[in-house]
Design goal:
Shape: globular
Helix content: 10-25%
Strand content: 35-45%
Number of helices: 3
Largest sheet: 6 strands, mixed
Low-confidence stretches: 1-14
Mean pLDDT: 86
Radius of gyration: 15 Å
């Protein structure tokens, strides 16, 4: 069934870049939609469906194309469930993420500021701190 859904989507939506790794320290990997694991390096592309994992000594930072950031702590697993941003606020933007285990820090980009219901971070348990920044439109 999942394959049918993926085949019905335009290729640009299925394989579109969501962000890039800006910083890696220690051991980290990306598990893509097909289940293949890849070593993470600076500049690695992140796409919808990818799961990022850090080891005991691993940390990484990702900058999403809408300007958002995540910073994963050691022993973390984070999945990009759904991500779409065309470069403009058009009502179709979405950022749905899942922290499977571990810890992270996140800064929302355009999606979280312009379309709050379209941005979601699911976690099993969370401690949250919110800092409001006045960003130019």
């Amino acid at each position: 069934m999942l394959l049918g859904v993926l085949l019905s989507l335009p290729a640009s939506q299925v394989l579109a870049e969501a962000g890039r790794v800006e910083f890696v320290h220690g051991s980290a990997s990306i598990i893509d939609q097909s289940g293949q694991s890849h070593v993470v390096s600076k500049g690695s592309e992140i796409a919808t469906g990818d799961t990022l994992q850090t080891a005991d000594d691993g940390r990484l930072q990702v900058k999403f194309i809408d300007g958002g950031y995540i910073s994963l702590q050691p022993n973390s697993s984070f999945k990009v469930e759904e991500y779409h941003y065309s470069g403009a606020v058009d009502g179709n933007e979405r950022g749905i993420f899942r922290l499977i285990k571990g810890g992270l820090r996140a800064i929302t980009g355009v999606i979280g500021h312009a379309n709050k219901p379209a941005y979601r971070m699911d976690t099993p348990v969370a401690t949250i701190g919110i800092r409001v920044l006045n960003l130019p439109p």
